[in-house]
Write a structure and sequence with these properties.
Length: 249
Amino acid sequence: MNVLLGQLASAERSGRALRFVDSWSAGGRQADSLADFVAAIAPFGLASPCAAYSLGFGAQRTCKFLFNTLPEPLRSVFAGAVDIHGDPVVAASMSRHLPFTFLELGADPSSGFDLGTVGAIALECGVLDGLVVPIHGPFGYLGMVAMTASAPVDLAPGETAALAAAARCLFDVARAAAQLDTLARSARLTQREREAMSLVAMGRTDEQIAAALGLAASTVRHHVDNARDKLGAASRAEAAALLAVSGGI
């Protein structure tokens, strides 16, 4: 009887997460979707979701929050841009495709995730564990949705799959609200700027781009800098990734 009741409860939790997908797959207001998501994950013992996205390549890759509802003082620690090369959770999201918990990450010696240091801060907020859903896309695009838990996260495979679907749906709503694709599509790049950026996306140097387009290297840099400024990108790699993800090149 207890096993049956547990299965029914698990099915109800998973069904609630999937109903979130049904409700928000067409998009909507981020604030409303976030509140609905918080309600959907509560029966799993999860709370305080945050989402970040990353664009670019190598040392120039950048990572920023779409929203951050982590409890204080964790929210302040992770406010603003994320140090993608110094954050083990972000690094794990880049290399993994399946959802993972904080405790699983801490148990992996190669992850660099120091549960002792992070845990000291997290425990102040009543956070013992959490779930991270990596979200991968084309041209180096990376996103993730993380949730906290006050107890070790123990989910059935179906529950994890339902939560991952809901997290990806929420991420899409937040990404649309941030207008990342819209900004890239609406940027008034000249033909030369698009040509130069398409070659940047292929990994060509300024000298190689100059030779391909019959321009001076200084002119190429001018076109690339203009495109980066119009896109509001922090680097040429981020600009190329924004254009690629939005179909602009």
